[in-house]
Amino acid sequence: MLLLRTPHSQHFLRYYEIVYHQGAWYITHNANLVQGTSPGVPFQTTPLLDYSSRATQGTVLPQQRWTPADEVDVRRHVEGADLQLPIYFINRNGSIGFPLPDILRGCDHDLHNANDFASLGGRTTTHIRINWPGYGCWKRQVATRDGTHARNPITSGRFMKYIGIAVDKFLLVRSSAHGSVSTEPRWQIGGHGGITQAEVKVIGAIHISAGSWMPIIQLTRYVY
Asked: What is the pLDDT of residues 18-39, one digit of tens each?
């Protein structure tokens, strides 16, 4: 509702005629009311809104959505912000998401539209925030424009690499090897039976505030 600015008097599914097709949900009506993309990024007439987790295998990490603590900041940076549509990392072979080790090895050439500008909201920097269950919220700041004279938005491939590095840094800092213990044992990182880097996939990222994105993280196994 924050993303689409849904009128309070109408159900957003009906208002935007969101349809499900082959494992994904698309906006097919009133697409012109969806927040615009970053400069230089073409706008799709039938925007992709979400994927079904059934299209992949493994548990999707249930992160609580981060919001600013101050109500004034919520109104300014969330409720009043032009939030961008979610960004999904789709392999050229059609699969959704990339294993974290592959991202760190530089597999962005396998990313569909890897060289297109990423629609990140037009800012020069953003925060990547992770709210892994059982641990405190964590963030890392990254640049969203390149080093050229034109200061173009970074590409989707570069954004995926930044997300991957952030997730990897988080896992390292929060691993049990560094003395960090989860308050929710099934989501423990590292140690005996804990979640490892090799079990982590990055599906994409969602725009949660004017200056923040949260990665969509999935495991290669199921956590019950």
From this structure: 889 989 999 888 776 676 566 6
